[in-house]
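Co-fold these.
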Amino acid sequence: MNCAAYQDLVAAHVDGVLGPAERQEVEQHLTSCASCQRLFAEESRFHAAFAARRLIVSLPVEVEQRLRLALAAESTPIPSRPWRERLLALLWQPRWAFGLAATALMIVLLLPRLFPAAPEPAWFTQALDSYHAATEGRWSFTYHTADPQELEAAFNRSGQLDFVTHVLDLRPTGYRIAGGQVVREKDHPVAVVLYQGEDGPIVCIRQRGTTPPMPPGSEGVKGKYLYTRAGYTVSCVQSAEHFCTLITRLPREIFMRRLALAPAS
Amino acid sequence: MCIPAGIVLLVRGMAAKEADGRDKHALFEQWALPHKDYIYTACLYLTRNKEEAEDLFQETYLRAFRFFHQFAPGTNCRAWLLTIMHNVFKNRYPQYLRAARTLEFDEAAREYEKKLLADGEAGRDDPAEMLLSRLVDSEIADALRSLPEEYRSTLLLVDIEEMTYEEAAAALECPVGTIRSRLSRARRLLQAALATYARERGLVKEDVPSVLPAKAGTRL
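Predicted complex below.
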């Protein structure tokens, strides 16, 4: 080995990464070359001093923030949309349209045969009839007071009812009484009160007896439950000798929130 | 009513891919982001310009994220990132590669090197490690940045970024033998550049030839 060859290898020698054969050759050369020995010593000292200087510059915070934003944006393009959306996008193509429409039609036609709808409870049909009669102006109300106590007294004084009734005060919930009436339902009297509020009417129906059995899908306990069907929300609550049915078109959650504002009766 | 098996498989595949996306972010955070300072430093030394360094850094990491499936966890992630960075650098800033080699530098450096190699004359009274202790980081960085690109890259990857010779050879796409000889020369050239800085600042008295190019580039 000559000096020029060693000058090319000095870094690897200093770093200790020479192979055994090369190292032997290098050491042999150094024993007879004072100049390369000095070079090795100087390079070793310099390298140790240089390695001791940590020349790493910290990444500025704003550059890191920009990177993180860009990385977050990398995951938003189409391939990583939620799988439900992607499935819809896949199915929602013109070539599938006819097939989807035909399938949907078949399902619509077949479902009622496969799963016949449960019959509506009789009390629900009755409540619905009263709701429509009261809200569509088919009744000319006997009582026209907005005061619940006054209406309650009028009901109980009338002698038409076979139970002592109560009239809910829904004013704190934004509902005021529009009218009251006693109607005969088959063989028994029923007290009907119509409330009006910003979101539409609520009809309260009271009659002697106990609450009907809880239909499937209702929520609550026996004697006090909520039932939703065909866009109507109905609450049934048992009182001493009669039960009260409130019926409205408000969604269940809103109706419950409104009732929560009413004072306990 | 039963759902066709094809739809079930399709939905499962999509859900798995979505989970993979989340995993990719977590793994990238775990493997690649801890090296951010090292990569940023390399970008600074390569481009000699803060704005360009920031752009190079951002592009390197975004490209690394896009190709993260090619990274084998457990291998040297910093070396992998630096290889990407070097490729981005070559494609994006070819002007640095062209302009890097300056005649003045080569001639002056050769003269200094000759002295250093002859009998260690150039740094006899003020050895280079003494110079290092007298210069601040930004001056050392300037001296490093003044080196021609091929020497700067080699010294940067091995001595600052702590890559092995083999990893640096892979990143710079050259044989390991080239890395050895370039690194040997790069360290001598750096000492020459440091000596010039020290002389300019009156830290040494010897008449050391200036090895720095006329324009040393933008400081940090």
